[in-house]
Structures are given as structure tokens and as C-alpha cells.
Amino acid sequence: MEELRQKKQLLLVEHAESLRKLVRLLEYENRLLKEKLKKENIPFDEVNPFEETIDNVEEYDPDRGERIVHGKKQKSGVSDTI
Hints:
- The protein has helices at residues 2-39, 64-70.
- By secondary structure, it is an all-alpha fold.
């Protein structure tokens, strides 16, 4: 049982690292595209989605990942496990 838990944790870490690499690649590509737009004097909004705040608390649930990973039940009693 412990070995299975360790394997799941390892997979989650590997998945998280893959997502980080993908985000960095997309940020780099986005920077290149913005430079091209600036060079051609094409206007665009300079919004960084990672700097946006969440105005509606219902949009963000800080415990969601915990429930998914550890199989805790939601307040409604419905399991949020995968």
C-alpha cells in the first residue's frame, strides 16, 4: 500500500514538472509573439493571466487538490476523487 502511494506521489511530481515546462515554453513563445507585434506597431493588451486576482471566491477552491489527491469528501458528501 505504501509503495502504491509513493508511486502516485512520484507521478504527481513528474506531471507537475511537465506542466511547469509547458508553461515556461508558452511564456517564451508569448514573449516572442509580443515582440513581433511591437516591432510591427500592432496594438495588443498586455495582460498577465498569472497576475489576475479572483474576485469571486466560488471560482477558486484552495482545498480542491487536497481532496483529489487524498480522496477527502466534499461538504455535500460526494467524493471528488479521480
